[in-house]
Amino acid sequence: MIFGMPLDYSRGRRRVDWPAAAPSQSGPPVHFMEENMKSRSTAPLVALALLLAGAPAVADTAYVPNAGSGTISVIDTATDQVVRTLAGEGSIGQKLEAAAVDAEGKVVFVVDAPTDAVVAVDAISGKVLKSIPAGKSPEGMQISPDGKTLAACAEESNQAVLIDVASRAQTAAIALQGLNPEHCIFSPDMQWLAVSNENSNDVEIVDLKQKKSVKRIPGTGHPRGMAFTTDGKSLYVANEGTDSVQVIASDGWKVVKVIPTALRAAGVLAHPDGSRMYIANGGAGSVSVIDTRTMAVTATIPVGKRPWNMAITHDGAKLYVANGRSDSVSVIDTAGNKVVQTIAVGKLPWGVAVR
């Protein structure tokens, strides 16, 4: 899932393995394009090279956890079509919420709050690989920038739970000072974990080296989604109760600005180039675009009902918005700030993860 972090553009992409060069032969070297292709054996390789040189990059895949269906819709971002639905041979979970995908794109991790677990699912077959304990009633989750660790917020046990991606095992359950943590996100340098606490109305900062809560910043009203800027210097926090976004400087953790957006601001996501923040306004059915330089709203894009959490393609060209009450995902062209496709998914989509 991409939440204002530096991106590895090669991660999760399919690659073409070029054939090894043939051993050098005696006599003068054979060049690809000379004298009408004297060496006919090289012609197919030249054709392949020219074809691939002009071919577009393989598209990302988007995964949508459907809280009301207990399924995961899989979207090919090249065609914006659902190509399969992961159902876990009958059941992945009762209420699927946050999702994240491993670096190889082979395993999708989803939160299932009623079973107090993060569930690892095979990204192709939908087979449930493991159910990992994640505190009491987990909700928000994110994978670290290096792809090695998952952080899940356990609302009822007031914990930030860390899970090792490779072993699929819980490695820590960090006690929080705040109440009802909703979202947990890593800073780009992985020094900090930011947590939004809805019931205590604050944002909590966890030192990941110490695995200890070190700071609490008052919110303006029910903080929910968050994202760091790509340089890690600012943290944007949606406050659902005040229809606004706080901008917090990570140097000292001080609020530097409050930006009005629209009714029930909930989801936050950074564009990969660092120039923009996207805010999903659950009550307004819209996405606000904030210029990170001026910290001002520059566009408002109508989407479906109750837009919640979002994801963006690695090239930053398409933004995918889960519309919880429309059972759909809106696809936004980020260059034109307009919806170019609406994709039907399962019931109550909670968010989107792209790999």
What does the model show?
The chain has 355 residues and is mainly beta. It is built from one helix and 28 strands. A four-stranded antiparallel β-sheet has the order 3-2-1-28, with no helix packed on it. Strands 4-5-6-7 form a four-stranded antiparallel β-sheet, with no helix packed on it. A four-stranded antiparallel β-sheet has the order 8-9-10-11, with no helix packed on it. It is globular. The termini are close together.
Strand portion: over 45%
Tally of DSSP β-strands? 28
| Helical/strand content category | mainly beta
Supply the number of helical segments.
1
Low-pLDDT parts are 1-56
Cα distance, first to last residue?
A: 7 Å
Largest sheet: 4 strands, antiparallel
* Global morphology: globular
Quaternary state of the chains: single chain
Radius of gyration: 22 Å
User: Kindly state the mean pLDDT as a whole number?
Assistant: 88
